[in-house]
């Protein structure tokens, strides 16, 4: 409870410091804030496993019409991916009612860019959560999600990056949970010395040094009972 209070306090301060509209990363449930790698570095989040789903929430503490973007570009598009909610034009399930009547989300359709433009409505806007965009860690590596504000007609202003780092999954059986089944897979390869690319002994050679040993066990336990969904 104390940790959640401190995180809530941090995000409240961060919202005030970085502007009236902010973007924050949550676990897939949309309620649990993703912890930071360092509480002194805003928006640089703790390592997550490949396959982990997150939710990015855009909120505001003021009532005003607003538009902006979430964008992944360049090599980062190989490591992370953004998803809008709903199959209809404007991704209506990504627009919360507080974003106002007529709020909409539109995806980018350009090579080397994965992103969405976000637009509040024209009436009944409230100060609260406005938009929800889902994020998936697709490969090992770093991914920066740019959060932009549209300054019409001048252009877009980068407010900050949400910084994610993806590590090898410990969910060896792809069940969406790191549990006893995954531990059994690691144990079945214990002390095996011929692990190699691309399988790495079903992923249990987490440090990819060719051997499943105590270091791999330590890396595995760091994510014990972690869920990717």
């Amino acid at each position: 409870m104390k940790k959640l209070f401190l995180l809530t306090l941090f995000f409240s301060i961060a919202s005030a410091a970085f502007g009236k509209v902010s973007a924050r990363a949550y676990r897939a449930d949309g309620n649990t804030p993703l912890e930071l790698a360092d509480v002194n570095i805003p928006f640089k989040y703790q390592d997550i496993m490949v396959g982990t789903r997150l939710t990015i929430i855009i909120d505001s503490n003021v009532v005003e019409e607003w538009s902006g973007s979430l964008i992944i570009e360049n090599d980062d598009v190989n490591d992370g991916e953004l998803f809008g909610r709903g199959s209809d034009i404007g991704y209506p399930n990504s627009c919360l009612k507080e974003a106002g009547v007529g709020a909409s989300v539109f995806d980018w359709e350009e090579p080397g860019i994965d992103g969405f433009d976000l637009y509040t409505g024209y009436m009944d806007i409230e100060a609260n959560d406005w938009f929800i965009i889902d994020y998936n860690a697709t490969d090992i590596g770093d991914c920066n999600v740019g959060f932009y504000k549209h300054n019409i007609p001048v252009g877009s202003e980068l407010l900050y990056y949400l910084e994610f780092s993806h590590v090898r999954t410990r969910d060896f059986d792809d069940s969406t949970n790191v549990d006893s089944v995954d531990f059994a897979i690691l144990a079945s390869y214990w002390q095996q010395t011929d692990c190699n690319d691309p399988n790495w002994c079903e992923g249990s050679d987490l440090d990819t040094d060719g051997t499943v040993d105590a270091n791999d066990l330590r890396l595995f336990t760091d994510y014990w009972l972690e869920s990717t969904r």
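The beta strands are 21-27, 48-49, 53-60, 67-73, 80-83, 104-107, 113-119, 129-137, 141-151, 155-167. The two ends are 22 Å apart (CA to CA).
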